[in-house]
Amino acid sequence: LAGPVNHGVFQQVGVTAQKTMRLLPASGKKATQKVVVGDQDGVVTCFGIKKGEAVPVFKTLPGQKISRLELGGALNTPQEKIFVATGSEVRGFTKRGKQFLSFETNLTESIKAMYVHISGADLFLCASYIYNHYCDCKDQHYYLSGDKINDVLCLPVDKVNCITPVLACQDRVLRVLQGSDLLYEVEVPGPPTVLALNNGNGGDSGEEILYGTSDGKLGLIQITGSKPIPKWEIGNEKKRGGILCIDSFDIVGDGVKELLVGRDDGMLEIYNFESADDPSLRYDHALSESIASIQGGCVGKDGYDEILASTYSGWLTGLTTEPVHREGGSGEELKLSQEMQSKISSLRNELEHLQMKVLQEREKYQQSSQSSSAVSSVPAFSVNDKFTLNKDDASYSLILEVQTAIDNVLVQSDVPIDLLDVDKNSAVVSFSSCDSEPNSNFLLATYRCQANTTRLELKVRSIEGQYGTLQAYVTPRIQPKTCQVHQYQIKPLSLHQRTHSIDHDRPMNTLTLKGQFSFAEIHSWVVFCLPEVPEKTPAGESITFYFQNTFLGTQLESTYRKGEGCFKSDNISTISILKDVLSKEATKRKINLNISYDINEESVRHTLKLIHPKLEYQQLLAKKVHLIDALRELQVHEGNVDFLLPKYRSILEEADQLLEEYKRQPAHLERLYGMITDLFIDKFKFKGTNVKTKVPLLLEILDGCDQDGLIAFFEAA
């Protein structure tokens, strides 16, 4: 596969949500397919392509945001009925645009995910935590999920002979249902954001499901009647964006369907199957915005298949297998086909016309704004944001995507955080000095974006125990100047991530709380302290969550019910932070807490052994970086470096990589020093001893970087 060629943009609609664009089945043997897309203005647009131009079929009137668009139809007939989820309502349209269904569900929230079964009679809908199954618009089954539902589908009934819905839930679990009951749970490596049937039909068995996660992993699982069978899983080695959409389509024409994947960083990928269990990436193409929907089909020209992608701001882009070049007559040089040349010149004309129109409107606006009676209306714009913790480097990614070009983003924080370097970020950053004392302002940074930047990615690292708010002020390039503020909570245990299980053999410290508090109250405190905990109070009488510290690898187990909470961790500092924050929250609500703790001395030694290799590595890196300038100067003076020891020669050879790594992780060493200092203070705080005067001595030992000496100091103090 040399790779499909970028065929350009067909059409622009309003801002689109995930999974809101589909291709209608071709009506004749050789006909091209029509495209149908729903946007956040509530408009359903259907169009075909003739000679590279979009030809409208129908367009509905605006309404509530469209959150999903699916196709359905009776069994063994073309799936050409269009179903859209808008608010808490499902509407149905024929391929000509005639509305045949308006089904107002009994959901109190907006529909987030929808699946229409091939039969067309079964409808599976999900709001945040609630799943409903309707048959012929009558309520059949209901399920309340433990965490937010991101996607839903159902295995094909004609193959598996029973209705088997599968929910993709935020807590890194696929929940397989039977009726209104949970059949079993499948643990997946990241929060699943999208589900698709393998090959579009569930494979030979009809039981194969593809999933994509928000941290960019991809996998295939067979959902049998009794247990899941994992088939394969692809990690995210290239550190690309989260997966938003998946489709299966034979773009090569070899009879085997390739896997089409769209990511939230604009990467479009094609995987093929050289062996059944091992998909390999054959082709990728970068778009400038997140890809909300992806489909394979024949759209632009009969006989040439293509991949169609719709992006966040509503652009529909095609990648075609049609050759763009034709052999030149006598010469061997390649020339653009006549059709392509005329298309380019018509686009140029259209662009000039639009630029003239913009200039005229701008002058008109400037003139009218001089008059005293003129009032500027604030233009509304849509921002798609994502604030997530990355397990690999214990940092938070803040991704801001705007439907129009971004002018600048001001980032402000009332807690100390480090801004880390992002390779993909071309914006110019400037820092302003800020006074942390009266206004608790620890960070003020402005990112000035280059023209036509609609997506900005920032990386920050927080310090556990310091909690507050990070604010992003987003200003797009629109007139009059408007700004939107988005807030993100930095939680007390911000570097902890939910995990499926922990190692129970580690030495653990225990914190126990007892008092007159309800299940909902203690749950709200845990939500305040830790990321990735569902805001909704869990069903049942008690709950257990497991967490892992992404920076150090220490763990936390939290079990609580009405009137009692028990928190276990192999890191004393985690217990100390929880004790301080939970007692503060209880005091705010005038609730008396009875707090007891059991400290395991062995856990301190265990935590130090976890930190030490990281400390050693960072100290060595810092030493090497400090030597680079001096070694380079020697190289210039002496002409060659053959006389240097091999270890110094290798520093010179790897200088660029070392500097790059050091730049990517500013203050990493300081953070490790801070964690060891906190561990030292917390160990003795639980014994009622203040050891702050001994901290300078501890820092001296840290500079020496001797593990045994460090452990001995902790024990002797």
UniProtKB/TrEMBL annotation:
InterPro entries the UniProt entry points to: Bardet-Biedl_syndrome_7_prot, BBS7_GAE_dom, BBS7_hairpin, BBS7_pf_dom, Beta-prop_BBS7, WD40_repeat_dom_sf
Protein's UniProt name: BBS7 protein
Organismal lineage: Eukaryota, Metazoa, Chordata, Craniata, Vertebrata
Annotated ranges, domain BBS7 platform: 496-598
GO terms under cellular component: axoneme; BBSome; ciliary basal body; membrane; neuron projection
Residue ranges that the Swiss-Prot or TrEMBL entry lists as coiled coil: 337-364
One Gene Ontology biological process: intracellular protein localization
Domain BBS7 GAE: 379-488
Organism: Uria aalge (Common mure)
Keyword Coiled coil recorded: yes
Domain BBS7 helical hairpin span(s) in chain numbering: 601-714
Domain BBS7 beta-propeller: 21-321
Superkingdom of origin: Eukaryota
UniProt keyword list: Coiled coil
Gene name as annotated: Bbs7
